[in-house]
């Protein structure tokens, strides 16, 4: 049986005065999936989340949760719960009472509340901390309390507004893993808003990318990385070298393009883009370029250049290679296999690429300088 | 070596000018003589002892307490809602109304007093404790609003959203989250507005009719030289009470800011 839709957004719009925060948002979310809304700050992703939660009324369009129209249903009656960016831990209550807060609104018995609070705290690995004061918690613990307080309500959908942005890097990575695990164990739909592409990619089943109030692309992390719908999405997710290309011929599934320096390549059509015209952009991920002193054998396209500078990241090394006829240096990333940096600034090198690594990004958007 | 700079001397003189006259009040209240002048003849607690015997004084004190408590409750509850609106929402005429609320701080008291007297008489409210309460609420409101605004300023709006999200109604959210979190601010506001009312003279003088508050009573006693030492004793006690209330209010105000910064 195919998983059913838990949330449907139909033509959702939000205007604040003259400012259009969200434009014509259509989206179906499946039961049990981890979905992320990804985009730069101010793109409307938080507004969209707040419309699902019921904190903001749509200017137009509808929100359905589990098939029910939410138009007349206020936030306190919706089957959703939220983890706030600031965590919003009640400062006058201890951990136990924070987590029990929502259950007390439901008129459950004291023993039932105690049991569920204990379970929820165990779930986020804060077992036994009921009596801890809100002011005595670390950042990571506050995040866990916020998570427990929302999950103890057993919502149909858990909404998370930048849940990890207040944590330091190490803790953030650990929580990414734990939250993903928790979501899979519980099978609850998580909808997370984030501006951090790595966070979105490591945790999500699907990602929706938003720019300027519009949902631009919805796909799995892998598809988003391999087949971005345009240059803007491609530059927001991971790193990408952009090159202009001329289309010399095409079939239903392939394009024959000439790329400056690399010569003629046969690349796959990107089904996500509506390619038209003869000038297109192509993209190449830095890690998919071969870099060597000798001309590399067995590559579909090769080009000669000079290393302009070297950036050492620890787990890999980025070489920025200048090629005649291309303004922007081309970045090539090499995993740090043997603790060596093989090329220095000024060295003459070759770059090699396979047809399959060159991504069709549709009609040319590179500003002519 | 540190030489006192011109600025330090200025500051010293300024503080002396401000507080030395106030210090004479308690000093002479212990003086064993009815003339307020140096040298001090001897020390006595007689003037304080006599206070307890004066029925009109006790009645004036009770009047002042009643007016103060009602004024503090009225202005603080109005200030609480006004401050929440000012901090949380943007609405048309917000800045104008914020300015208007603060206006009683700068309007001369005598103008307010005489216009209120005219207004109250014309709408049938006789000079009475009720009239004083209305006048004092007007005067105390700016204090209540500004104290409550600082209590709400650092109050994360998502706390109220979280409570609502967890199933509380709007009223429940206010009772279980908003109120406890701003409680120290409410206590501070109650104490300050009570003090404002308790010490106020001009309005009370115009609006009191035959029910004097303590400051009006003191003023009426100052005309009798024999009563002056009693008045000094009473004034000293009021001074002590006011300072105490304001210190306690400041403690609560700071505690509210600290608890919010932590939470």
Descriptive account of the structure:
The complex is a heterodimer of chains A (about 375) and B (about 260). With about 375 residues, chain A is an alpha+beta fold. Chain A has helices spanning about 45-55, 95-105, 110-125, 140-150, 170-185, 195-205, 220-225, 230-235; strands at about 5-15, 20-30, 35-40, 60-65, 70, 80-85, 155-160, 190-195, 205-210, 215-220, 240-250, 255-260, 265-270, 280-285, 290, 300-310, 315-325, 325-335, 350-355, 360-365. In chain A, a hairpin with a 2-residue loop joins β9 and β10 (about 215-220). Chain A is elongated and about 75 Å long. Chain A starts with a strand and ends in a 6-residue tail after the last strand. Chain B is an all-alpha fold and about 260 residues long. In chain B, α1 (about 5-30) packs across α11 (about 230-260). Chains A and B meet through β6 of A and α7, α8 and α11 of B.
Characteristics:
A: 369 residues, alpha+beta, 5-stranded antiparallel β-sheet, elongated, B: 263 residues, mainly alpha, 11 helices, globular
Distance between the termini of chain A: 54 Å
Backbone shape of chain B? globular
Percentage of residues assigned to helices of chain A: 10-25%
Classify the oligomer: heterodimer
The ordered string of helix (H) and strand (E) elements of chain A is EEEHEEEHHHEHEHEEHHEEEEEEEEEE
The shape of chain A, in one word, is elongated
Major sheet characteristics of chain B: none
| Structural class estimated from helices and strands of chain B | mainly alpha
**Low-pLDDT stretches of chain A:** none
């Amino acid at each position: 049986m195919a998983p059913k839709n838990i949330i449907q957004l139909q033509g959702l719009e939000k205007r604040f005065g003259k400012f259009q925060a969200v434009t014509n948002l259509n989206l179906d979310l499946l039961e049990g999936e981890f979905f992320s809304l990804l985009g730069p700050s101010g793109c409307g992703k938080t507004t969209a989340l707040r419309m699902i939660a019921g904190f903001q009324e749509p200017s137009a369009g509808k929100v359905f949760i589990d098939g029910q129209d939410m138009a007349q249903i206020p936030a306190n009656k919706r089957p959703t719960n939220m983890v706030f960016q600031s965590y919003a831990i009640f400062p006058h209550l201890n951990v136990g009472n924070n987590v029990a807060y929502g259950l007390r609104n439901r008129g459950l018995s004291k023993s039932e509340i105690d049991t569920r609070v204990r379970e929820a705290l165990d779930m986020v690995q804060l077992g036994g901390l009921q009596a801890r004061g809100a002011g005595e918690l670390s950042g990571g613990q506050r995040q866990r309390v916020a998570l427990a307080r929302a999950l103890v309500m057993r919502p149909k959908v858990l909404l998370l507004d930048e849940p990890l942005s207040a944590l330091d890097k190490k803790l953030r990575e650990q929580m990414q893993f734990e939250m993903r695990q928790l979501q899979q164990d519980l099978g609850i739909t998580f909808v997370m808003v984030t501006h951090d592409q790595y966070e979105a990619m490591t945790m999500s089943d699907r990602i929706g990318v938003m720019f300027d109030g519009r949902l631009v692309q919805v796909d799995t992390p892998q598809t988003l990385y391999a087949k971005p719908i345009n240059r803007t999405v491609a530059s927001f997710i991971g790193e990408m070298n952009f090159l202009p290309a001329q289309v010399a011929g095409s079939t239903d599934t392939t394009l024959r393009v000439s790329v400056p320096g690399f010569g003629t390549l046969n690349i796959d059509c990107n089904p996500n883009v509506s390619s038209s015209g003869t000038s297109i952009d192509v993209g190449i991920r830095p890690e998919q370029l071969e870099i060597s002193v000798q001309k590399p054998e067995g590559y579909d396209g090769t080009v000669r250049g000079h290393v302009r500078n070297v950036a050492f990241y620890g787990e890999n090394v980025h070489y920025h290679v200048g090629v005649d006829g291309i303004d922007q240096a081309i970045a090539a990333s090499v995993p740090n296999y043997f603790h060596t940096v093989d090329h220095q600034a000024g060295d003459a090198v070759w770059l090699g690429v396979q047809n399959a690594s060159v991504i069709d990004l549709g009609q040319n958007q590179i500003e002519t300088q | 070596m540190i030489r006192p700079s011109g600025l330090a001397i200025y500051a010293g003189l300024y503080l002396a000018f401000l507080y030395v006259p106030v210090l004479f009040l308690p000093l002479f209240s212990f003086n064993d003589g009815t003339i307020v002048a140096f040298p001090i003849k001897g020390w006595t607690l007689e003037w304080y002892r006599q206070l307890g015997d004066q029925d009109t004084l006790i009645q004036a004190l009770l009047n002042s307490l009643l007016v103060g408590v009602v004024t503090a409750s009225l202005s603080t509850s109005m200030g609480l809602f006004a401050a929440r609106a000012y901090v949380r929402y943007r609405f048309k005429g917000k800045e104008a109304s914020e300015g208007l609320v603060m206006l009683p701080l700068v309007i001369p008291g005598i103008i307010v007093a005489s216009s209120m007297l005219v207004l109250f008489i014309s709408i049938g409210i006789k000079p009475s404790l009720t009239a004083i309460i209305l006048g004092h609420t007007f005067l105390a409101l700016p204090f209540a609003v500004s104290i409550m605004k600082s209590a709400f300023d650092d109050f994360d709006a998502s706390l109220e959203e979280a409570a609502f999200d967890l199933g509380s109604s709007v009223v429940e959210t206010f009772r279980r989250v908003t109120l406890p979190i701003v409680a120290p601010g409410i206590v501070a506001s109650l104490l300050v507005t009570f003090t404002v009312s308790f010490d106020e003279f001009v309005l009370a003088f115009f609006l009191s009719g035959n029910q004097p508050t303590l400051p009006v009573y003191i003023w009426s006693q100052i005309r009798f030289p024999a009563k002056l030492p009693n008045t000094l004793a009473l004034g000293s006690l009021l001074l002590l009470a006011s300072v105490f209330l304001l210190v306690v209010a400041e403690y609560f105000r700071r505690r509210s800011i600290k608890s919010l910064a932590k939470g």
